[in-house]
Amino acid sequence: MSIQSAARLLTDVCHGDGSITVLTGAGISAESGIPTFRGAEGFWTIGSREYHPQEMATRAMFNVDPESVWVWYLYRMGLCQQARPNAGHLALAEMESLLGDRFTLITQNVDNLHLLAGNSQSRTLQIHGNIFHARCASACTDKIVPLPDGLRPKGKGSRLTERERRRLTCPVCGNWIRPHVLWFDETYNERYYRFRSALEAAARTRLLITVGSAGATTLPNHIANLVHKNGGHMIDINVADNPFASLAIGSGQGIFVKSTSSEALAAMAHAVALVQSNL
Hints:
Blueprint: H1 3-15, E1 19-24, H2 26-30, E2 44-46, E3 49-51, H3 53-56, H4 59-64, H5 66-82, H6 87-99, E4 103-107, H7 113-117, E5 124-126, E6 129-136, E7 145-146, H8 162-167, E8 177-181, H9 190-193, H10 195-203, E9 205-211, H11 218-229, E10 233-238, H12 243-251, E11 254-258, H13 261-277
Parallel strand pairs: 1-4, 1-9, 4-5, 9-10, 10-11
Antiparallel strand pairs: 2-3, 6-7, 6-8
């Protein structure tokens, strides 16, 4: 289906009073130059062995080699720092400003680009965490804090300095702090990853827009299935076929737009602006 068809569906929903939820995945950030880390960019060498992201981004690996995990995350942090919000991010910030409390953004991305673009903390559910925050690895406190000052992006093959090791120590218990991200061998919860809040948003959603997500994690699939079960409309925006596209088309209430997120979301934000200007 065309971008115009999706914009018309969004316009129809905007004329009512239902909630609109946007669920974003790695595709929107890839347009800002951030690798998905599921390809060759994600491999990481320690000694003579190469590790997959699914091995590095785990509690099990952190328990064995926290320093190497931190070096890998500081490398990723550097890539995220270099990136800037693209037209898709900016369009979603505009949509929130126009729709207010009718709008919820749920993101799987940890790169902070949605907040940099202007989406609010209160309406943005970062269900996989934020790479620029940390918390105690031993859970002596559940407080989430910004990364300490003095940490620099790392190159491949780097190690932590003694000063960086001290910075990555919990000031309460003296153990390591950890990146505030959902690891592959962990489960969602409300305190850190807004599990209940995301499902509550899905339950009241009249239109779900999924953007650049491969549908490979459980909570996003729960969200989409709940909206489908409740008879909500769906728009999937992606450059490739994916489970959300199939669900949207199969529901009879949805549209699959095979497009970059920047192009499609800019058109949809414009459609919302036209509706709001005529109210």
